[in-house]
Each structure stands twice: as C-alpha cells, then as structure tokens.
Amino acid sequence: MFLWQYLSSLLLIAVHICEAQECDQMKRLNLAHAFIGTSLRIRLVLYTRENVTCGTLVSHTDLSAYPHFNLSRPTTFIIHGYRPTGSIPTWMQDFIELMLVRIDTNVVVVDWNYGATNLNYFKSVENTQGAADNLTAFIETMQKHGASLSSIHMIGISLGAHISGFVGANLNGSIGRITALDPAGPQFTGSPPQDRLDSSDAQFVDVLHTDIDSLGYREPLGHIDFYANGGTDQPGCPKTIFSGSSYFKCDHQRSVLLFLGSVNQTCVIRAFPCSSYTDFLDGKCQSCDQFGAAGCPVFGYDVTRWKDTLLRLRQTKTFFSTNSKSPFCSTSYRVDVMIWNMNNHRGYMTIKLHSNGTEAVATIDHKSSEFMKYTETKLFAQFDKDIQSVEKVSVMFSAGDVFKPKFKLRVLRIRLTHLELKETALCRYDILLEEKTEVTFRPIPCEESNF
Ligand SMILES: *[C@@H]1O[C@H](CO)[C@@H](O)[C@H](O)[C@H]1NC(C)=O
Ligand SMILES: *[C@@H]1O[C@H](CO)[C@@H](O)[C@H](O)[C@H]1NC(C)=O
Ligand SMILES: *[C@@H]1O[C@H](CO)[C@@H](O)[C@H](O)[C@H]1NC(C)=O
Ligand SMILES: *[C@@H]1O[C@H](CO)[C@@H](O)[C@H](O)[C@H]1NC(C)=O
Ligand SMILES: *[C@@H]1O[C@H](CO)[C@@H](O)[C@H](O)[C@H]1NC(C)=O
Ligand SMILES: *[C@@H]1O[C@H](CO)[C@@H](O)[C@H](O)[C@H]1NC(C)=O
Known about the structure:
Layout: H1 2-20, H2 31-36, E1 43-48, E2 51-58, E3 75-79, H3 92-102, E4 106-111, H4 113-116, H5 121-126, H6 128-144, E5 152-157, H7 159-170, E6 177-181, E7 204-209, E8 224-228, H8 246-263, E9 272-273, H9 277-281, H10 307-313, E10 316-320, E11 331-339, E12 345-355, E13 358-371, E14 377-383, E15 392-398, E16 408-418, E17 426-434, E18 439-441, E19 444-445
Helix pairs in contact: 6-7
The structure holds 2-acetamido-2-deoxy-beta-D-glucopyranose (NAG) (6 copies).
C-alpha cells in the first residue's frame, strides 16, 4: 500500500518533469489532411540560443510568459511555403540551428501548415493574405513590447516569400529585411506589386531564384535578385519525371540549401550583375566597378554589406553558377586564348587545374567558342573547386565535329586569371592542342607583352 503510494507519487513527478521539458515544433500533418484540405491556423514556434533544439509555442497576444523571447535581440522569422503532403520541411531544423550559430537572434518559425497543406495549390495561395494579416498583428504586439521593426528579418520560402511581402506592406515597408527564397510563381506571376512581394515591402529585399520555369517567379522582385545557374535548372537535380517527387521540388528546394550554405559560411559565392545568363556564361559580366573596393556582391546572408550601393542602384539582377552538391560554390577564372591557325575555328574546352593530387575541372560547353588568329578569345571557366597554388594545367579542345580528320589548334598563348586573385595570372605560350587529346603543362608567370 505504502509502496504503491510512493511509486505513484514518483510517477507523478516524472510526468511533471516530462511536461516541463516538452518541446514544440511545427505541426506534422499528413496526406489525409491534404486530401480533405486544411483551414488556416497559425502557430509561432520560438527558438533561441538558450533553446536551440527545443521550440516554445508562443501566444499571439501575451509575450510576458517567455523570458527568453528577448526583444532587444533581432528576430528572424522563417516562413515555409506550400506543403502538398503536410510534412515538415526536411531542412527546418538545420535552418534554425545554423541561424542561431550565426547570430544571437530569436528565431520564430511561422507554422501555417494548417492552411498550406492542401492537394489544391490554389487553396493554399488563398490563405497567404490571411496568414500575413495574422503575422502582422503579432509583430505589432512585439513592437508594443519593445521590438524595433528594423531588427526584423523575414525569410520566406516560395509562398512564404509573398506572405513576407504582404506583412511588409502592412507595416509600410519598415521591417529591416526580407529574404525571399525562390518566391512562388504560379498565381503571382504578372500580378501588381500589392498582390505579391516587391522591393517596397522592406528596407532591404534580397531574392534568390532557382526554378523560374516551374514553381518559382521569373521576374526580379527585390533590390537584388540572384539567379543561381540562370535560375532555371539546378545542377544535380533530376531532369526527368522518372525520379519521382524530387523532379518537382529539387530545383525549388535548392534555394534553401544555397542560402543555408551562406549562413553556415561554407564558402563564398560571388554574384555578377548581368542582363542574362548567356552573357554571364560568355564572360561579359565580370566588371564589378560599380561596387568599388567591395567587389561584386556575395550571395546570401551577408549581402547586407552591399546594401547601401544596392539601394542606390534600386534593382540589380545578378547571376552565379554552382556545383551540384554542397559546398555549392564554384571558382571562377577568366581564360584568354589566342591562336595562330590561319582560319577561324569553333569548339569547346575542358580545363583542369592540378595541385598536390587534387583536381578542379571546368567545362566550357554552353556554346561553342570562336577562336581567331592573333585575337584574344575570352572564356569564362568555373571550376568545381578552388585550388591553391596550381601546379599543372590540363586543356582539352573539342571541335564537336566527328567527320573532320584530327585537327590541331595552335595556341600562341593561354592565360588563366582567378577572378578573386587577379594579380596571380597563369600563362603558357605556344602549345599544340590536338582535338580531344588532353595536354598537360606547368603554367608560368605571364609576360606583360601585347601581341
Ligand atoms: C492568429 O491566428 C491564431 C491561430 O490561428 C489566432 O489564435 C489569433 O487570434 C490570430 N490573430 C489574429 C489577429 O487574427
Ligand atoms: C526551453 O523550452 C522549454 C519548452 O518550451 C522551456 O520549458 C524551457 O524553460 C526553455 N529553456 C530556456 C532556457 O528558456
Ligand atoms: C536581451 O538581449 C540584450 C541584447 O542581446 C542583452 O543585452 C540583454 O542582457 C538580454 N536580456 C536578458 C534578460 O537576457
Ligand atoms: C502605415 O500607414 C498607414 C496609413 O498611412 C497607417 O495607418 C499605419 O499606422 C502605418 N503603420 C505602420 C506600422 O507604420
Ligand atoms: C556547415 O559547415 C560545416 C563545415 O564548415 C559542414 O561540416 C556542415 O555540414 C555544414 N552544415 C550544413 C547544414 O550545411
Ligand atoms: C600534399 O598532400 C599530402 C597528402 O595528401 C600532404 O601530406 C602534404 O602536406 C601536401 N603538400 C602540400 C604542399 O600541400
């Protein structure tokens, strides 16, 4: 009897301890919800450095109950997009943790899974304005408790990007920053600024496009718009429908992975202002003069370093290329080639850089390049790795013409210039490139001569 009482009180204590440590997170829904459809309900889940892995569900009106929701700190909202199956985004916990490693902020996950989960995309779109109005009221409550609008950063993914825009417009554009990760296109493309995200929605709006031909938005929407790999197809993503659901979401989701890489400072991705991806690949957009000593903007979390210039320029469209896997950053070189063959020749080039057993590869094949006698042909080579102290270089030329007999490109000079370290150009003079045969050489310092 006594033993029983003793045990049951122990059990009660245990239950209390469990309750105290219970963590909240975004609500997991399922396909049944998606079939029936869900109506809008907004949950706000708070994470801080004191509580990185354990979320706290926050009241919309009474903030006094959460001592660790310190409004002297900045606040970062993460706003997810359409959830066709009701699942929690796979990147969510990484996102929270990487943000908190990077900056002492309140991370508030805006869980509108009730509202976003629906087999019918258009129903989810209908909920974006309501979600924004609800969030606006919450931010106004934060303001009453001492938060400043300029210390608020909203990061919106897909539909979440437009929700961020609506919230920003409700608050007259005075929140500090909106980062839009592949803002949704369907139902928003072509609509007027008040019906979508635009650059007047926050003091600074930065936008990444990764799937403009399908789920994303094609036109620029912010002060700076980044088009990763042209914004259409991302390397490493499946190109056919036989790959299942990743065929639909891989390009779109890549926006989150690229942004997280920048939060994690995995590597630096320089973005070049350009009017089109073709011009970018042709190497026509390497001038960064308008940004002075800072150089061209770096994609991602740290682009705020360029904020003043970007605001002055009003709208800047930029491009960069990436690798297919993390770390996504590639290393850019300008390659100048001069030949002395009598006739002009078109072809493709593959270049490898070697150093101490590692190898970086760049293939320049988006279109054939034209080589002309005694004229410098400027190529843009993006290597999958950054190689320090290049020991050897391999070059292979291919004319893409299977019928002609083996042809030789007579190279008078090839010069490779690292775009970040311009002072250390690598050269080689007088090499013979037999078609489809790799030629390897040791580069030497370039001579300051003009041919
Ligand atoms: C926001 O949504 C929550 C839950 O869906 C609700 O409790 C709250 O009253 C809403 N606030 C406003 C201002 O609509
Ligand atoms: C962390 O979150 C849990 C659950 O909401 C809460 O009980 C606990 O007090 C929080 N810890 C801190 C240090 O705020
Ligand atoms: C709230 O954050 C500010 C700024 O980081 C800090 O100075 C202050 O001590 C914090 N207050 C509490 C109660 O933790
Ligand atoms: C935004 O502007 C409207 C109309 O001028 C005003 O009523 C409202 O209080 C302003 N809100 C903020 C957050 O400045
Ligand atoms: C963050 O960077 C570290 C290396 O600096 C890497 O090991 C880790 O996988 C990265 N995390 C994510 C989520 O990218
Ligand atoms: C070259 O690589 C080897 C092993 O991979 C390493 O031990 C050595 O320190 C490297 N040398 C240089 C100069 O990086």
